[in-house]
Write a structure and sequence with these properties.
Blueprint lengths: L1 H13 L12 H4 L7 H7 L2 H13 L5 H17 L4 E6 L7 E6 L1 E3 L5 E3 L3 H5 E2 L19 E5 L6 E3 L2 E10 L8 H22 L6 E15 H5 L2 H6 L24 H16 L4 E6 L5 E6 L2 E2 H21 L2 E4 L13 E9 L12 H20 L1 H8 L20 E2 L2 H12 L12 E3 L9 E3 L10 E3 L4 E3 L9 H27 L4 H17 L11 H9 L8 H4 L6 H9 L5 H55 L4 H4 L1 H33 L3 H28 L10 H5 L3
Parallel strand pairs: 1-8, 15-18
Antiparallel strand pairs: 1-2, 3-4, 5-6, 6-8, 7-8, 9-11, 9-12, 9-13, 9-14, 10-11, 14-19, 16-17, 18-19
The structure holds adenosine-5'-diphosphate (ADP) and magnesium ion.
The site of magnesium ion has 3 residues, from loops.
């Protein structure tokens, strides 16, 4: 095995970049080639069908079956021209990733032959035999019906030979069984709440969109090295591994030159992404070795989230072509940065106004401040809930570590906006609002043009940061479906805006002008938030932990406990008021969360136990035997001074015995703890038991990593950090 490791490492190092099959055309020409977008709709549908479909997409008008038949026929013609043979409803169950079940177009033509068919019914609805998707008890297996239903607002696309139809997934009894359904409900809620406010400023506004721009971080590992690590293969992270002497301490990876094998992968993924209509914009190295990032231009949240799910799948497939495996886990390696997925979020109108960017004049600024303050109020009121929305067994390794947002949700405003809020509290309510824009600044070198300085600085330690025209919700995990965070954030903001509008209406009914009514309503909110949710200091510091607690922010760090926020009275009420989740759905989802948490830890614990007993202890004992042989031989030849001569060997033998015993005892204690945990039937209690087991994995890891330091390098069975992280 040790020989094998050495060979694998050598081979991995020698691998060269795979040639990329670059299309002849420019990206703008093949962008959206595999998407049934408006251009294709126009080309493949008659005008009546086209108009009906657009009305459905833009204005939520229902689509009748006959029109759906016409749409399906047009899609089929387009798909067949691309060699498509199958269709699938593509949905996002409460597992990780997406689900699909392929049906071919084939049917009897009743003339003795076969024909490709696809009608409105198969487009609109499918009934996957889905009894084994998580439902948190909503659907017992005996009533296992679940339906997928077409979401026309996210365009149909082609993957390989399959036409993929984005769908929601709901139970026979109507409850949502997926991520998309509640997200769409939250997006509707935020439109319903924000629109009346926007109309006060501009009666022409017809729709408010929620926007999402995700930044996907990931690691790449050579696939052969990956295959030699059972922990990576089964859990997505390394459960053991001594730190590499060089890791990220030189800060030389961030924005560094992209290695050629990785560059080839990135180009390939961009080509695939463009064809799928994903507007990829940014690619770069991240802070940790072998860590990278990919980000698109932001878009409407439902579509942008579908695209994130799609690109995650595509990345996995494309990586294999390049001999890599993508790690989306939030913390694949101990001691270096983990991966997140910043969710850049904002609201905007169909008239092109970004509601979280300063306006052109004082009226625009008032609208901006209105939304800005209400977002902060929502984040304050629902801070525990927002944290619950990003919590998971895997993200737990990242939060609170000295690299990612702490396990406390606070908001960073930057100096400009902090000053604006303070000033608003001092001046009369009819004072026009001024906000300093980007300032020109000379670099001090004549040949360098003036640069423009943003009105916010960066604060990497904040989980929810204002960055000029949007907020960045940074606590989201790299492997997560953004929908969970986006549903919660949009619903919370919708609720706050609704409450705010009602208060403003009351003020106006009492005779106040719009501006004064708005400012008079905003001021008490600003007072309430300015010294609570707003925090521009160092989120990593110990003082902040204490300070946050004093301010009444949620400081819970135990993940199964965090989930409880979803079923707290205030939060159930908010979600039901906004029509996003029913109480039953919230309870069911928590059952699923706890269950997934326990299972994830259970798998890690099993893998850890087996690797410790099957891989690590045997390697340590083999080396110990070698040492003992050596000692025996020295003793034979030098019976009088062997103790002095073999001092190092004897000490090592003792050390190895100690550590082996330690590992062995801890593993068996963990197995016992698992037996106890597995008997618990209540999902929350079980998850709490597994939370303790998760902590015990650290304790098992320690002596293993210590052994890695002393055992003969040739005899160590697993690729080491230095090998996993520096080969590309
Ligand atoms: P960084 O945060 O690392 O500086 P970028 O400036 O590249 O990253 O932007 C990150 C993401 O934010 C991109 O997906 C970008 O499209 C998105 N973004 C920019 N403005 C907005 C906005 N108003 N609403 C939502 N997302 C936005
Ligand atoms: Mg960012």
């Amino acid at each position: 095995m040790s020989k094998l490791r050495f060979d694998v490492v050598q081979d991995a190092f020698k691998k060269k970049a795979v040639a990329v099959d670059t299309p002849d055309a420019r990206p703008s020409e093949y962008f959206g080639e595999l998407v049934f977008n408006r251009e294709k709709m126009h080309k493949y549908l008659d005008i009546k069908t086209y108009n009906a479909l657009i009305d459905c997409i833009d204005n939520g008008k229902p689509l009748d079956r006959e029109t759906a038949d016409h749409v399906a026929a047009g899609m089929k013609t387009w798909a067949l021209a691309h060699g498509v043979t199958h269709i699938t409803h593509w949905f996002q169950p409460l597992t990780e990733g997406t689900a699909e079940k392929h049906d071919s177009f084939m049917d009897y033509d009743n003339k003795g032959g076969m024909i490709e068919t696809f009608d409105g019914k198969s487009l609109a609805q499918q009934e996957p035999d889905a009894s084994s998707f998580p439902s948190g008890g909503i659907r017992a297996t005996f009533e296992a019906r679940g339906y997928t239903a077409w979401d026309p607002t996210s365009p149909v696309f082609i993957q390989d030979d399959t036409l993929c139809i984005p769908t929601v997934f709901i139970a026979y009894t109507g409850e949502a069984l997926d991520y998309k359904t509640p997200l769409k409900k939250a997006l509707k809620a935020v439109n319903d709440a924000a629109l009346p406010i926007c109309k006060m400023f501009d009666p022409k506004v017809k729709k408010v969109y929620s926007y999402l721009g995700w930044e996907q971080e990931y690691f790449l590992v050579d696939e052969d090295l990956y295959a030699a690590r059972p922990d990576l293969m089964l859990t997505g992270r390394t459960l053991m591994g001594h730190a590499s002497s060089k890791n990220q301490q030189l800060d030389d990876h961030y924005f560094g030159a992209i290695p050629s094998r990785v560059m080839a992968f990135m180009r390939d993924i961009e080509i695939a992404g463009y064809k799928l209509g994903i507007p990829l914009k940014t690619r770069h190295n991240e802070v940790a070795p072998n860590q990278f990032e990919l980000a698109p231009i932001f878009g409407e949240t439902n579509l942008s989230n579908d695209q994130n799910q799609l690109i995650m799948n595509t990345m996995n497939a494309v990586a294999r072509k390049h001999g890599f495996v993508v790690l989306m886990h939030e913390k694949p390696f101990d001691g270096i940065n983990g991966s997140g997925k910043h969710n850049n979020w904002s609201l905007g109108t169909d008239t092109g106004t970004l509601l979280l960017a300063p306006g052109k004049d004082s009226k625009g600024n008032l609208q901006f401040v209105t939304f800005f303050v209400n977002v902060l109020a929502a984040v304050q009121k629902y801070n525990a809930l927002l944290k619950a929305s990003i919590a998971s067994a895997t993200n737990a390794h990242r939060l609170g570590a000295n690299e990612a947002p702490p396990a406390i949700v606070s908001a960073f405003l930057g100096k400009t906006m902090t000053d604006v809020l303070h000033k608003l509290l001092e001046v009369p309510s009819d004072t026009p609002i001024e906000i300093a824009g980007k300032k020109g600044k000379s670099v001090g070198l004549v040949e360098i043009p003036e640069i423009f300085i943003d009105n916010t600085d960066r604060n990497r330690t904040s989980p929810f940061a204002f960055t000029g025209n949007r907020f960045e919700f940074r606590a989201v995990g790299s492997s997560a479906n953004c929908a969970n965070a986006m549903t919660t954030l949009n619903a919370a903001v919708a609720d706050q805006l609704t409450e705010f509008k009602a208060a403003v209406d009351k003020e106006m009914a009492a005779g106040k002008s719009m501006n004064i009514a708005i400012m008079d309503t905003l001021k008490p909110i600003i007072k309430k938030i300015i010294n609570v949710i707003c925090f521009d200091g160092n989120g990593y510091s110990d003082e902040w932990q204490k300070e946050a607690k004093k301010r009444g922010l949620d400081v819970e760090t135990c993940v199964p406990q965090m989930f409880k926020a979803f079923t707290e009275k205030q939060n159930i009420e908010m979600f039901t008021r906004m029509g996003v989740y029913t109480e039953k759905e919230l309870e069911a989802r928590n059952e699923v969360r706890w269950e997934i948490y326990s299972k994830k830890v259970q798998i890690e614990a099993r893998v850890m136990g087996l690797m410790a007993i099957n891989n690590i202890i045997p390697a340590a004992l083999a080396y110990q035997t070698k040492l003992l042989d050596n000692i025996a031989k020295i003793k034979e030849l030098f019976p009088n001074k062997y103790q002095q001569m073999a001092k190092v060997e004897i000490e090592l033998v003792e050390k190895i015995s100690e550590r082996v015993t330690d590992i062995h005892d801890k593993v068996y204690a963990m197995i016992e703890a698992r037996k106890v945990a597995n008997k618990i039937t209540d999902e929350y209690e079980k998850a709490m038991a597994y939370y303790k087991i998760a902590e015990s994995l650290f304790a098992i890891r320690k002596p293993i990593d210590k052994l890695e330091e002393v055992v003969d390098n040739d005899m160590w069975p697993l690729p080491k950090y230095r090998e996993l992280l520096f080969i590309n």
